[in-house]
């Protein structure tokens, strides 16, 4: 690509799990990449390998405050937000602000730069769903004032303001509804089920299953998720799109699989279920299959082994750390 034609992309939440994988992908596609993060739940080690590259820049900035980026921008990916229930319960106001004020700032930036913007929404917009699988047409079942409401409602507002900018200003927008995604670079102690279970199994501790463990989730491996987001960005589809793996299982079965794959003797310990924990979650991905020609390709065993291997490479002191 000659210098004139190079595309420039801003990725918010760049030091987090998905943001860092997106930075890698767009660097590999030969984009000029600007990563932005305020480090509230991120880890610079996720992107330190990019700092030496001439086509990567990093801005330490809170996107809930006015966002300024000099020069042209062709694309914006807005991924900044706490994403784990433990994180957003600890920092509820920052979570509401990044989904609302942060999204508003980035839509304004996209408008001024005439950039295409893709925002990271979530299966949590469906709340504790009354139908399964969840298709994009389902409006959801969210408790706005429950503890998870700070995240769910911020993301619902994010979708609403993104559609409003699309309709009123003709902004080129995309909305991805991400279902539970896992893989290397998830923070070991972010409290989400998968890193927690893997860490517990590797330490030889009991796995803490919340409730009776019969609630379900459908876990998507990170490389599949990134491919889906990539295809959505370059499609012309402006309505919300589910990206996730429909392979649904109970949390009990997920815990058992992790115990078996790590080869440890851990047991399951049942602890109380958090308030408003969704009972079931499974994406309907017919739209993604039809419009993006996308389908997940990494099976759970393969994805879990990659993820377990990532945590096994950590220094033992880090594996022992518990922040909650
Ligand atoms: P993560 O916590 O690993 O990454 C989020 C990043 O955003 C962190 O680096 C954090 O420091 C940064 N950030 C938070 N607030 C910020 C602010 N105000 N300004 C600048 N940076 C800020 O989480 P993740 O799993 O990578 O999630 C990324 C995005 O994807 C989030 O928007 C999340 O809601 C969405 N999502 C993720 C999943 C999943 O399963 N991983 C599911 C649904 C939606
Ligand atoms: N969960 C669990 N033990 C843990 C962490 C989570 O049993 O240590 C359960 C949680 O109650 C939920 C499921 O696992 O039913 C997935 O939780 P996670 O935090 O990964 O994401 P969620 O889908 O709830 O946002």
Describe the structure.
- Helices cover 37% and strands 17% of the residues.
- It has 10 helices and 13 strands.
- It has helices at residues 17-28, 85-90, 92-113, 149-169, 193-203, 222-233, 251-262, 286-292, 300-312, 316-320; strands at 8-12, 32-37, 56-60, 75-78, 116-122, 173-178, 181-182, 207-210, 216-218, 220-221, 240-243, 248-250, 268-271.
- It has a 7-stranded parallel sheet, sandwiched between helices. The chain has a two-stranded parallel ribbon with strand order 7-10.
- Strand 1 (8-12), helix 1 (17-28) and strand 2 (32-37) form a beta-alpha-beta unit.
- The longest helix has 22 residues, at 92-113.
- The relative contact order is 0.13.
- The structure holds nicotinamide-adenine-dinucleotide and uridine-5'-diphosphate.
- Nicotinamide-adenine-dinucleotide binds at residues 12-13, 15-19, 37-42, 62-64, 79-83, 98, 102, 120, 122, 178, 180-181.
Topology:
Blueprint: E1 8-12, H1 17-28, E2 32-37, E3 56-60, E4 75-78, H2 85-90, H3 92-113, E5 116-122, H4 149-169, E6 173-178, E7 181-182, H5 193-203, E8 207-210, E9 216-218, E10 220-221, H6 222-233, E11 240-243, E12 248-250, H7 251-262, E13 268-271, H8 286-292, H9 300-312, H10 316-320
Parallel strand pairs: 1-2, 1-4, 2-3, 4-5, 5-6, 6-11, 7-10, 8-13
Antiparallel strand pairs: 9-12
Helix pairs in contact: 3-4, 5-7, 7-9
The chain binds nicotinamide-adenine-dinucleotide and uridine-5'-diphosphate.
EC number: 4.1.1.35
Membrane topology: Single-pass type II membrane protein
GO cellular component, one term: cytoplasm
């Amino acid at each position: 690509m000659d210098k004139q034609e190079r595309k420039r992309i801003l990725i918010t939440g760049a030091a987090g799990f998905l943001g860092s994988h997106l930075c890698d992908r767009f660097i590999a596609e030969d984009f000029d990449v600007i990563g932005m993060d305020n480090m509230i739940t991120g880890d610079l080690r996720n992107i330190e390998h990019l700092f030496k590259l001439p086509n990567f820049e990093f801005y330490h900035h809170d996107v809930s405050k006015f966002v300024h980026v000099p020069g042209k921008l062709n694309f914006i990916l807005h991924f900044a937000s706490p994403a784990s229930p433990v994180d957003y319960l600890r920092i509820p106001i920052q979570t509401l602000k990044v989904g609302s004020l942060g999204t508003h700032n980035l839509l304004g930036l996209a408008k001024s730069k005439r950039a295409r913007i893709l925002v990271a929404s979530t299966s949590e917009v469906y709340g504790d769903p009354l139908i399964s699988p969840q298709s994009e047409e389902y409006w959801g079942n969210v408790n706005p004032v429950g503890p998870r409401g700070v995240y769910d409602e911020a993301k619902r507002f994010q979708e609403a303001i993104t559609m409003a900018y699309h309709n009123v200003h003709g902004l080129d927008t995309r909305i991805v509804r991400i279902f539970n995604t896992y893989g290397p670079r998830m923070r070991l102690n972010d409290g989400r089920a998968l890193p927690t279970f893997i860490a517990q199994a590797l330490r030889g501790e009991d796995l803490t299953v919340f409730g009776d463990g019969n609630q379900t989730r459908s876990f998507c491996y990170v490389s599949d998720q990134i491919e889906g987001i990539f295809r959505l960005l370059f499609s012309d589809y402006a309505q919300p799109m589910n990206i996730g793996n429909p392979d649904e299982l109970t949390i009990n079965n997920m815990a058992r699989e992790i115990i078996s794959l790590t080869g440890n003797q851990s047991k399951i310990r049942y602890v109380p279920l958090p308030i408003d924990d969704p009972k079931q979650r499974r994406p309907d991905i017919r739209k993604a299959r039809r419009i993006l020609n996308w389908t997940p390709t990494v099976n759970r065993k393969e994805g879990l082994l990659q993820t377990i291997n990532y945590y096994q490479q950590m220094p033992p002191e880090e594996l022992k750390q518990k922040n909650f």
